[in-house]
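Entries read sequence, tokenised fold; example below:

***
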Amino acid sequence: MNEIITVLDIETTGLNPLTNHISEIAAIRAEVGPGGYIREIGRFQTYVALPDGVEVPPEITELTGIKTEDLRGAPTLERALTAFWYFARGTAWVAQNAPFDLSFIARIFKSGDFRCTRAMSRLIDPDENASLAPTCERYGIVLNGHHRAMNDVEATLQLYAVLREKAEVNGITYRNVVVDSPERPLTYSPPGAIVRTIARKQTKEVA
């Protein structure tokens, strides 16, 4: 069965949603279906203004290429997330590390139906690295400019289509599922999430 989804990715000033801030939001609304079918419907991208006195740390600029001056004049967080909500409404939200992205969005909006491709990767290949870059490499998906929001969204959309097919064929439940593990404890659980605990050999992961 085909479904309409919105794949999203955010860039932030750090990892803690209580003390750090969203700097960029990107998303693709698409129809996906059996056999890896993808039909892109539309794209959304915006920088997000930081609160007064907050700057993008140098290490984040080095990682993402986003500078403090890039965000001047951008929409506030509330305006940016409201625009995103209207773009994505009526769809399931898909993110590579959904608990991370949704923990920041939860400042303004609570998520509904969602999919986490990192969790899907862990459920399908529990002993493999589930981070975006190695998972894309494993499935032959091109990931250019990792850690820029739209680049990651493009790759995550392709990845979701592949993992969705594998999960459906193997009877794996993946909708609203997040993964907790000793090597990477779950720090935020979206409303309505189904938490699965999966342990594997120690391998360092990033988003």
Summary: The helical segments are 58-64, 77-88, 98-105, 117-124, 132-138, 149-169. Residues 3-197 form a domain with the Nucleotidyltransferase; domain 5 fold (CATH 3.30.420.10).
